[in-house]
Specification:
The complex is a heterodimer of chains A (516) and B (80). Chain A is α/β, with parallel strands linked by helices and 516 residues long. Chain A has 18 helices and 15 strands. In chain A, 43% of the residues are buried. Classes of the chains: A alpha/beta (516), B mainly alpha (80). Chains A and B meet through helix 1, helix 14, helix 17 and helix 18 of A and helix 1 of B. Chain B: One of its GO terms (biological process) is ceramide biosynthetic process.
Amino acid sequence: TKNGISNGGLYKRPFNEHFEQAPMYVAVFTYLGFGVGTLFGYLRDFMRAWGLEKCHLATEREEQKDFVPLYQDFENFYTRNLYMRIRDNWNRPICSVPGPQFDLMERVTDDFNWTFRFTGRCIKDVINMGSYNYLGFAETDANALKTVADVLQRYGTGVCSTRQEMGNIDKHVELENLVARFLDVEAAMVFGMGFATNSMNIPALVGKGCLILSDELNHTSLVLGARLSGATIRVFKHNNMQSLEKLLRDAIAHGQPRSHRAWKKILILVEGIYSMEGSIVRLPEIVTLKKKYKAYLYLDEAHSIGAVGPTGRGVVEYFGMDPDDVDVLMGTFTKSFGAAGGYIAGKKELVDFLRTHSHSATYATSMCPPVAEQIIRAMKCVMGLDGTTQGLQRVCQLSENTRYFRQRLHEMGFIVYGNDDSPVVPLLLYMPGKIGAFARRMLDKNIGVVVVGFPATPIGESRARFCVSAAHTREMLDTVSGADVLMKLTSDGKGAGRSYKSVALNLSNSFCICFS
Amino acid sequence: MDIKHAKDYLYWLYFQYLLITCCYVLEPWEQSMFHTIFITVFAMVVYTGYVFVPIHIHLAFEFFSQIFGGQHESTVAIMN
């Protein structure tokens, strides 16, 4: 459904989201395809169990057959019988920087993806539509990386200690001040790993007797952190404010499950951009709800920092809101800044508390200095502190590329999920046969894409996820959206009634390619 | 050129069939097995349709026209 200006004056700009449903025959064919795969899976398992076929999987020795089973056979059914058949589309080794184009090592398989061997050849200049390189900072330009090289010479690569012991380097302090300035908050703290930032800090903030309200499509790091904390977790429907309000009202009215005491803390966990759907969180409504019911808000801006907002400051700036309204701002440097690590920002009391109580600060190695310097130079570039307008240009280029690419895909009639302004573009494929076919055919055309199926997505909604980057040129985007593969494979969505004549005309040289 | 277009279109149809029924991911011998079974079932459906459908349509047409159109010639012979 398209939303215009909803909720009166809460939204200062139109909030357009699309989650179009496919026609019924698509769902029927999807389940049919999975049914055929399951039947053949049973057949192969039968053949493997009765020795008619060589079993490539790990099995116990003959002497151990009477013991408790070591390997669970049925749970890996899907992995063995469907994932293995199309496994060559994942874990592809790259041998260059993952910029707008990259080099891939060529891999072939002789026994249907059970083993691979490298031919030694390198496929050059594959257009990269899978890397989270939103602002294009994954680059090897020597001039741009000059400060990073200097820091590498001065500090080396290893830190060899935790933040609380000997691992607190002046680069960390400089970076934290810069992050606080970038986000317009009081203080920030950086950690060496983005996943660990979530999973190790949520347990420090909430504990037993607290309530966590988390979105149903939250990332694994948030789910893990919530579970490790020991708090009660309740899940609300994705981006659905009525569901969240209902949960909040129930929580406040009924309190804790058996004793009916008030909850110690209520924490709402949301993400800025959800990487599988491409949807942007409804921040103004959540902030209104949190103020009304006196809950705390934890915003994970892993994909949205640097990627949305007029100057790249994330969803808070995108909606024109005050960063003081969000209690805990979390983000990662992996996606838009071309580095690694995460940060948590907010009030000074919060950050000082985390410096002493965070598990990551006490036990995990801190960020290494060259990576910190890369983030410093990228952030200075985005803020304009290095004296050029290159940062702002990158942010504008990204939003332009996003709009153009999404518009092109919509014109062609594909079902694309998500908000119009999010650089994550999931294109729905639905049928299991198309997952492997799409990725392979795109690679033949020298375009590298990421396809996702069950269990990362619901079973009937497998997709190909494009990540638009500021470093992509218009020609690259035209190549990708105009690839014959798209027309041939995904004849779903609004264009289902397209005449086959226009499609057949595009197959001029593909007939030979298909048979080679 | 027309032959080429026709061949391309037929190949495209075959490819769509492979994708929709998830045959694309199967190994060649599994594909042959699936094609055999599918064509057998399809042939049986077509044969059944050919044998039964016209007769049923004819009978249904007679039944409905009897309700709306009144009697027609009786099939009972008059005994002399």
